[in-house]
Each structure stands twice: as C-alpha cells, then as structure tokens.
Amino acid sequence: MTQHDRLLIIDFGSQVTQLIARRLRELNVYCEIHPYQNVTLDFVRDLAPKAVIFSGGPDSVTREGSPRAPDGIFELGVPILGICYGQQVMMEQLGGKVEGGKISGGGGTAEFGRAFVTPTNDDLAILDGWFADADGREQVWMSHGDHVSKLAPGFEVYGTSPNAPFAITADVDRNFYAVQFHPEVHHTPNGKTIYKNFVELAGFKGDWTMGAYRDEAIKQIRDQVGDKKVICGLSGGVDSSVAAVLIHEAIGNQLTCVFVDHGLLRKDEATEVVSMFRDNYNIPLIHADESDLFLGELEGVSDPETKRKIIGKLFIDVFQKHADTIEGAEFLAQGTLYPDVIESVSFSGGPSVTIKSHHNVGGLPEKMGLKLVEPLRELFKDEVRALGRELGLPASFIGRHPFPGPGLAIRCPGEITREKLDILREADAVYIDQIRKHGLYDEIWQAFVAILPVRTVGVMGDGRTYDFACALRAVNSVDGMTADYYPFSHEFLGETATRIINEVKGINRVTYDITSKPPGTIEWE
Ligand code: XMP
Fold first, then answer.
1. Are residues 362 and 450 in the same domain?
2. Active-site annotation holds for 182
3. According to a count of CB atoms within 10 Å of the terminal CB, is the N or C end of the chain lower?
C-alpha cells in the first residue's frame, strides 16, 4: 500500500465520481475510490485515510435500504466532505432531515444544471478564494432531486441557491463539510478551489508525484513477482509500452514481451516498435509476424463486427501460442488503467447497447492460468503519459494518437485486400506527415485515413484514372466517447489532397470527413 497520505472516496454511484479523483490527483493527493458496499468501519480503519469524501449518487436517502456510510466513520476524527447525495447521507446519519424531491416521490423541487450559489457567510476554510466574482456569487452544477430540509446538529449554512437552501454547510468543530452541488465537474468553474482548501485543511502534503509513483510501483512489482517470469503483450500503444518499460526496470530479463503483428499496422510501425523495445531498451521481445494468418482469415469478410471477432479470437490464439514458448511464465502484464478498474466495480448505469465490440485480451489470463501484473491500475491516461516521460520514453512516442486494436482492418470498409492495405498505409503516412509538418499533431486527438470501397474516375496528365477514393479523418476528443471533427484550413486540406494524389499510387480522390461523434463514430467501422 502506498506510503503517501491517503484520501478515501466512498462511491455512492455518481456518474462523476472519477472526476473527484481527477481533481485530487491534480493536487498531487493520493486517493482511492471504493464502492460504499465495500466500505466497512474496519476497512476505513485499515486504510487509515487522512480525509474522506462521500460522492454523489442516484439513490434517495429517503428510501429505506438506500446506501449509507459505515456507522462510526463520524467518530474517527477524520475530515469529511459530502457531495450531493454525500451531503444528504451525512445529514441523515448525523440527525438532520432530507426531503424527497420530484424524483423520489416527495413534494420538493428538483434542480438540475447550472445554478448560482450566494454566500450567507464566507468565513469558512473550504471557501477560501472562492466567492471571488464581482457580484459575489459562484456558478455551480446541481443535479439533485432531494434536498436537505433540516441541518444536523452542529452544522451551519454558508451558502444557498434558489432551490437548495443548504447548498454549502459545515460543522467546523468536527471538520465536516457538505455541499449540494458538484465541485468536481467542469460546470462548477472554480470547484477545484474547494478540493484544494479541503485537502489543505486535512493536512495533505501534495507529495503524490510520478517520481514517487515509479519507485513504489517498482518495489511492488518486485514483491509480487519475486524471481518468476512475466509476459507482456505489446501493442505499440502508450499503455502497454509504459507498463513494459516499468516492469523491465523492476525485474529486467524476467520480462518477455510479445508483439503480435497482425499485418494491419501502419507504415513502418512494426519496425519502430521492435527496434525501440529490443534495440533501445534491450527488452526480450518476440515479434510474432502473423500477418499471413490474419489476412488469410479475413479474406472476403466485409462485415465490421465479423472482422473484429476474427481478429480478437486469432489474437488470443496467437498470443497464447507464443506465450507458451516462454517457459515458466507465471504472470501476464496488462496496461489496465484506473478508469477500467472503477468501471468494473461501479453499479451506475444500465445495460448499454454494443456499438462496437472493442477487442482486448479479456479472459486470457484465466485461460492460460496466469496471474496478472497491472502496474498502471491506479493511473489515469494522462498520468500514464507522465509516467512514460518519467521513464524516459521519447515524447513522440508518448504523444502518439490512439490506434485501435483491429488496426487498419476497420479503416478499410468492405473487403480487406493487401493492395488496399498498402495504398492505405502510404496515404496515411503522407497525411500524418502533413499534420506534423504543419505543427498540428499534438493539437489533434486522433487522425487517420480510411480507404473507401469505391473507385472513382479521374484525369491525370492526359490519361483517365480509375482509382480508390479515400477519406481523411481528424477529431478532437477527451476520451473517445464524443468527438468533434478538426477544423483544418482549406489550404491545408488542398495541399494534403494534392500530395496524396501525387505521391500515392492507387488513390485519385480525397475527401474530408466532417462528421462529429455522435452521430458518427471516430473510426469508419
Ligand atoms: P469509435 O470508432 O468507437 O472509436 O468512435 C473510439 C475510440 O476507440 C478506438 N476504437 C477501438 N479500439 N478496438 C480498440 O482497441 C476496437 O475495436 C476499436 N474501435 C474503435 C478508436 O480508434 C477511437 O480511439
């Protein structure tokens, strides 16, 4: 367990609990999110957090059997901050009252969206530097059906909003703070100030840095693995690369990486990955060139989901085949990130429709009887990049755009042929070169070319051409869930189209995809 000061976030099921963790990590505070069902008083005592935050949640404290914090947590002398449902739980458990709103069948008024909080008394440590607006109020994001109707003994009100008379409350003597709004979201523009003040008053030193993380992770990997062997599947992406370099630093040649080359990679990608890990880092690496197998099985297949399923299944088979050659391996390393870990315990949200079945190596460890090493489990994506920099991975590598597991297969709508893949690789290389030359690479979240399953007529010199059309794609996004197309200048697009048509044999028409997500998706399949 980390030696840093710890903050415990009790998750009552809010959609935005992860954002609380983000805000705290930005303040160099180590925190862990745990679902309320797992948080017993003994658990809290063992974790020994320096402060606790109660997240929001979808339930109503007025409902019998709704989530609670463990009895006794309020006696530990630890500062607590309650957010939304967290505030209501606190009031209810400490002797106040919560009134049901529209949603839970009560008569109260619900409040969703932007609201303004006005101070009634800003002499409160967590509000330091907060009500800084000229008109003395602060924009906040509200999302609640119920509201507190009577404060628990010892609490006072410090701010109100039109529909939340107890928008900011506190029992200063016991260091309990509770707000009805969500300071962690973007729409509470100065919300981070509240977290900053809270962790300061709780005495956090802000010493959760990547350097410290690296040292601790290395020690943990050594403790877990001992003198056994570890296999790591390398995709060329940031997560698996950082995991591999970190594990290699911890256990050296006890680690072997397996790089499955499915023949659907970008131009020169396989060589770059192999030379970086094998030559620069000296990491034992199996380069499994299985392109014939993958492209053979994909022959004649044009349905996107069938493509994904074939690639996913073959990937697992091939990985296993090569991993089996590493004698005595007991562990499989994975670049699992914190958001994946939290999602797997979260109870929020209903069943969602599968738009695309993203392929991964799920199920592989059980099948192979391997134990998992997941050194990035506590990190968010941008923290993985910071760790990569800390480990000396080249900036150009860390800043690479995301690349999907099925690779170029899903950028080649319709049937995949070697000819189309070769054309696509060349066009993509020119496009990315253009983007880099114009200094735009780091401004764009993801950019690529898709080759379209259609030939069009053109004229070059005095001759007629009948070649493929392609689509350029570039989007900005935070997490890939939604995306906006990138607004290139017409000059850039014109110059790029000319270069692709002149330099890439097989393409005579270039289009730019200006669909956002939704309604489109980022990839073409
Ligand atoms: P979509 O196309 O779903 O893409 O809007 C969102 C992000 O996910 C990537 N993507 C995939 N990644 N396996 C992956 O590992 C897949 O099957 C897959 N499909 C899409 C896509 O590149 C984008 O970053």
1. no
2. yes
3. N
Domain for residue 517, yes or no?
A: no
For residue 150, pLDDT over 60 is answered with yes
- How would you classify the pairing of strands 138-144 and 147-150? unpaired
43: left (phi over 0), alpha (psi -120 to 50) or beta: alpha
Kindly state if the Cβ of 278 falls inside 6 Å of ligand 1.
no
Q: pLDDT for 395-430, tens place per residue?
A: 988 999 999 999 999 999 999 999 999 999 999 999
20 backbone dihedrals φ, ψ, rounded to 5°: -60, -45
According to DSSP, residue 250 is labeled H
Q: Are 53 and 9 in contact (CB under 8 A)?
A: yes
Q: How far apart are CA 320 and CA 256, in angstroms?
A: 13
Domain span holding position 18: 6-201
Can you tell me whether residue 458 is helix, strand or coil? Answer: strand
Q: Rounded to whole angstroms, how far apart are CA atoms 484 and 171?
A: 45
Domain endpoint, select from 156, 180, 201: 201
Residue 309 CB coordination number (10 Å): 15
Does 453 contact ligand 1 (Cβ within 6 A)? Answer: no
**Structure pTM?**
0.75
Q: Tell me, yes or no, whether 277 and 166 share the same domain.
A: no
Binding site membership of 473 for ligand 1 (Cβ less than 6 Å): no
Q: Which of 184, 378, 426, 525 is catalytic?
A: 184
CB of 521 closer than 6 A to ligand 1?
A: yes
Domain closes at, from 201, 235, 269: 201
Specify the residue for token string 């949200």.
349
Catalytic member of 4, 31, 84, 523? 84
pLDDT at position 91, please? 97
User: Pocket of ligand 1, candidates 264, 316, 523: which has the most ligand atoms within 8 Å of its Cβ, to mutate?
Assistant: 523
Query: In terms of domains, do 219 and 357 share one?
Result: yes
The answer to whether residue 254 is domain-embedded is yes
In order, the DSSP letters of 25-58 are: HHTT-EEEEEEGGG--HHHHHHH--SEEEE---S
- Catalytic residue flag (residue 144): no
Residue 290 one-letter amino acid: E
174-193 pLDDT, tens per residue?
999 999 999 999 889 999 99
Closest atom of ligand 1 relative to the 525 alpha carbon: 2
Residues 189 and 222 in one domain: no
User: In 3D, which of 466, 468, 448, 446 has the Cα closest to residue 457?
Assistant: 466
Q: What are the residues whose beta carbons fall under 8 Å from the beta carbon of 376, sequence distance 6 or more?
A: 239, 242, 243, 246, 335, 336, 337, 338, 384, 387
